[in-house]
Amino acid sequence: MAGGRRVYHWPAGLSTIVFALLGVWMVVAAKQRTGLTVDSPPDLRRTGTARVESCSADALYMWLTSRCSARVQWDGESVGEVRAVRAGHDLPGTVPVVEREVVRRGPDMWEVVAAD
Predict the structure, then answer these.
(1) DSSP, res 63
(2) By residue range, what is the domain housing residue 17?
(3) Environment class of residue 11 by beta-carbon count within 10 Å: exposed (0-12), middle (13-18) or buried (19+)?
């Protein structure tokens, strides 16, 4: 013990778990940011325009995407509705949006996303 200094090493199993979780997080981040997927493109239900009121980082997607509260006006419909809009970044003002199918097991689900 030269100098009375003690060196601490992480257990190998804990290091493996930490790096595996970081790897999964990086893959999900790349997929969310780039829109890359191995599945066929999701079905689109309708298109419209959203007037964004506020945005915040979405914890469900590990704070890598934004979830914006917006008033959505669908093309061909006279009544708007308040919906959550998902995007890769905070959305400014008025933006085009689409409602697309969320591919999961179970009943059909739809989400509103920025058209870009």
Answers:
(1) T
(2) 2-34
(3) exposed
Report d(CA 8, CA 11) in Å as an integer: 10
Give me the long-range contacts of 43-46 (CB less than 8 A, separation at least 24). Answer: 43/100, 43/101, 44/98, 44/99, 44/100, 44/101, 45/98, 45/99, 45/100, 45/101, 45/110, 46/74, 46/75, 46/98, 46/99
Judge whether 60 lies within some domain: yes
Length of the chain equals: 116
Count other C-beta atoms under 10 Å from residue 115's C-beta.
13
In a domain, 39, yes or no: no
Residue 56 sits in the same domain as residue 90: yes
- pLDDT tens track for 56-106: 987 777 777 888 999 999 999 888 899 999 888 888 899 999 998 776 656
